[in-house]
Structures are given as C-alpha cells and as structure tokens.
Amino acid sequence: MNRWRALPLLALVGLSPVALAESTGEKIIQLQQQMAVMQGELNSLIAVQQASKGSQSALADVLTRTQRLEQEVRTLRGDLETQTHQLQIAQKALTDKVNALAEQQAAAAPATSATASTASAALGAAAIGPAAALASAATSTSSSAVQGMGQADYQRAFDLLRQGKYGTAVTGLQDFIRKYPQSSLMPDAYYWLGQAQYVLGQNDAALRSLYAVQVRFPQSSKAPEAMLRMAEIYQAIGQADKARFVLDKIIQQYGSTPSAQKAEAELQALPAAKK
Length: 275
Hints:
Blueprint: H1 2-52, H2 56-108, H3 113-128, H4 130-138, H5 141-147, H6 151-162, H7 166-179, H8 186-199, H9 203-216, H10 222-236, H11 240-253, H12 258-269
Helix pairs in contact: 1-2, 1-3, 2-3, 2-8, 3-4, 6-7, 7-8, 8-9, 8-10, 9-10, 10-11, 11-12
C-alpha cells in the first residue's frame, strides 16, 4: 500500500528538473553554434587585419561578442549542473524517506518486514538507479545520519548557487566546509565551491577547490568530474599541457566512467602538443 503512495511522489520529484535541464542544454547548444559563427568571423577579420592593418573596430567588436557568448555558455553550463544536482538530492531524500518507512513497518510488524524491504528496494531503484540503490540498501541508519551532517547549511548555500548568487554561495560553502569537516557532503561542497569560483572568474581559487576533491576524496563520484572542470579551466587560461595531463589522469584512474569518456573526447579536441 505504501509503495503505491510513494510512486506519485517520485514522478513529481523527477519531472521539473529534467525539463529545466533539457531547456538549459538546448540554450547551451544554441550559444555554442553562435560562438562557432563568431569564431569564423573573427578568423576572417584577423586575416584582413594582417593584410591591410584595418578593421580595428570590427575586430574589437567580434572579440567582445565572443567573450560575452563564452560567459553565457559558462553560466548556462553551471545552471544545468546545479539543476541536475538538485534532482539527485531530491531523489535521495525520497529514497531515505522510503527506507525509513520500511524500517518503521518492520519494527511494527516483523512478519511483514520482508515485504516492506522489497518495496523499499524497488522504489529506491526506480528513483536513483540500480547501483545507487544497492549502495543505499547497504548503509545503516547511522550512516544516513552522517550523510545528513550539515545538510541544512549545505542546502542553503547550494540554493544560493542555483539562484545565481555565486558570491554569497561561495561564502556559504566555505562556511559549511569549515563547520562540518567530517560530513560526507564535503566532496560536493568543494566541487560546487570550485564551480562558483570559476563562474566568478576566480580561476586559481577554483583550481584549488577542485583539486581538493581529487586529492581528499578520490573515491567520490565528484572526483573525476572535478578533474574535468580543472582541465576546462586550464584550457580557458591557455595552459593546454596541464589540461592534457589532467585528462590523461582521468582516463588512467577512472577508465570505466562516463567522465573518462568525456576526457578522451576533450583530449582529441585539444591541439597537438608542442615538441
């Protein structure tokens, strides 16, 4: 009975963020297409500039427009990732509630504990996938409590990030890291701190935050994602060799993950290394 009551809640949790993520993804594709056109214009103007030393104003205008489009793509990419992360948090919260309900039923009626456990596992798998559902089933109640350490403070900071208040979000995430060093949300906190700092143009600070995920939490799913962001920053600041090194490391350490596949694609897109 409780299993069927939980199913509508799963549908409500998953619908809106996915639609938002798809819409944001389409905007990113459109902006990237515009950037490709702008790059062609830029190359043409550079050729004219070299030939006649003219078109100074037009070249400056194209450069400005290209930089603005790059910033928009960067911001939209951050929005897409925050929406996806928000969906994951909502799904996990629902799974925890279902598991808690199953435990209550088991305590009240031992004879039905097997049925309740089966219902909990089925709902968990539907919400977060087979691998994550297995991991959730293996954790105890005390482990769930550890996972929630500082949850309210983390959520407040993340909500600020989602609203585009990056400066305030940075402060909130830094406070969370200082107050809850033992929380299992630390990899996420460092990751989103780095993302916010990157959007703000604080590249050195962003690299330090993302590097902390890789070094301190290498088993976290956020570790290869943080390394991908590091490679992206290195490319943006013209350090292709460092970007190549990080991407190679992702493939070596996380070869069976989607992040490794992304790293391979980005490596192919990088210019050839200088000899």
